[in-house]
Design brief:
Layout lengths: L1 H20 E4 L3 E7 L2 E6 L2 E4 L5 E8 L3 E4 L3 E4 L5 E12 L2 H6 L4 H17 L4 H6 L1 H16 L4 E12 L2 H74 L3 H15 L13 H13 L32 H21 L52
Antiparallel strand pairs: 1-4, 2-3, 2-5, 6-8, 7-8, 8-9
Length: 390
């Protein structure tokens, strides 16, 4: 029994000796080995053999890049505002022996060095510069930390400001300022939109008025030409027919009641030509004396009107008139487009260019009202044209 116990103790001792003798180090890891309390060597990745109970592993150092985040630190800016800044440090251990023997806790040392350096950098900046100069602050922190941690075997790769928190009162003021700025921009954009809309509306009204004026001018010209031709046809037809005095008197008596037609007529004055018309009618019926007798005149049959008499009043071809109106409308639209630039308050109003020819004025025609009395019967060529005296 005692032999088994001794054998078991020997087996356990052998296992412990083997474990202390053989060491397998992972990649990107280093072991600090001390022999009898003093630094002996640094073991890199691979298998290594130690002297049991003589060599001792002091520290296991990770050589990969490390990331450490520090809690927010209160920092005072140059305009006496306290802001809380939390930082993130990216570092790598490049010398395991220095990281173990030069400083007791290099993480704590980096944190305190970051706080002091951050206060020095932020103390020279105001709040606005602090919020807008993160790259500058990061570069200054990295330079200061890399210089200080070099003797510790630490290389600082990057320094990032994770958050900058100003006081709540300052945050509320900044939010109000940002809201006011956005409202101002929105008002400016709205005003610009209204301005453009009014300009476009005015330009559209201007072009429509120009087109309507051109169309109205063309319509008046065509209407005047039609009225002139109609008057010419009636005038020529009357003269070619050579109407007798009897026919003129009869027509005069038929039109005479229309003179008194109307609700506003309170008094009717009989013209002096009525007696002549009655005397002509009486002569036609054979009741007048020799002085009122009217000689028979030869009736002339009205033939077809001569086309050459209407040449000065010939209407323009409908297709040609339409093409001309479209051409004038296109020129007017081009003029409106060229002068469609926004007119400022100090700019004088646009004038019609000199090369724009105004539409021709309508031919003067005497308006014929429905209520106006008809014209007096035209007298024969031998009539002197003297108006009777009332």
């Amino acid at each position: 029994m005692e032999t088994l116990i001794v054998l078991a103790i020997l087996v356990v001792f052998a296992i412990v000796v083997i474990m202390r003798t053989v060491r397998i180090v992972p990649q990107q890891t280093s072991l600090i080995v001390e022999r009898l309390g003093r630094y002996s060597r640094t073991l890199e990745g691979g298998i290594h053999f130690l002297i049991p109970f003589v060599d001792k592993v002091r520290a296991n150092v990770d050589l990969r890049e490390q990331v450490v985040s520090f809690p927010p630190q209160p920092v005072i800016t140059s305009d006496n505002l306290v802001v809380n800044i939390d930082t993130v440090i990216y570092y790598t251990v490049i010398d395991s022996r220095a990281a173990v023997y030069e400083i007791a806790n290099f993480i704590q040392g980096i944190e305190q060095l970051t706080v002091t350096t951050l206060r020095n950098v932020i103390g020279s900046l105001d709040l606005e510069q602090t919020l807008t100069s993160r790259d500058q602050i990061n570069s200054q922190l990295r330079g200061a930390l890399d210089e200080a941690t070099g003797k510790w075997g630490i290389r600082v790769n990057r320094v990032e400001l994770k958050a900058i928190d100003p006081p709540l009162s300052v945050q509320e003021s900044m939010e109000k300022q940002m809201k006011a700025e956005r409202d101002r921009r929105a008002a400016i954009l709205n005003a610009e939109g209204v301005k453009q809309s009014q300009i476009l509306t005015a330009e559209g009204e201007k072009q429509s008025q120009i087109l309507r004026a051109e169309g109205s001018a063309q319509a008046r010209v065509l209407e005047a030409e039609g009225q002139a031709r109609a008057i010419k046809q009636v005038f020529d037809a009357i003269h070619r027919g050579k109407p007798t005095q009897k026919l003129l008197a009869y027509q005069y008596l038929q039109v005479l009641p229309q003179i008194a037609r109307g609700d506003s007529n309170k008094m009717w004055i009989i013209p002096s030509e009525l007696t002549d018309a009655l005397r002509g009618i009486g002569g036609m019926l054979g009741k007048g004396d020799d002085s009122g007798r009217i000689d028979d005149e030869e009736f002339v049959e009205v033939g077809e009107p001569d086309a050459s008499s209407f040449e000065p009043f010939a209407l323009q071809d409908a297709k040609a008139a339409l093409e001309e109106a479209r051409g004038q409308a296109a020129r007017s639209t081009k003029e409106a487009t060229e002068h469609s630039a926004p007119v400022s308050a100090t700019q004088p109003p646009m004038k019609r260019p000199a090369d724009a020819v105004p539409p021709p004025p309508p031919a003067p025609t005497a308006p014929i009202a429905e209520s106006a009395p008809p014209a007096a019967p035209s007298a024969p060529e031998s009539w002197t044209g003297e108006e009777p005296r009332g």
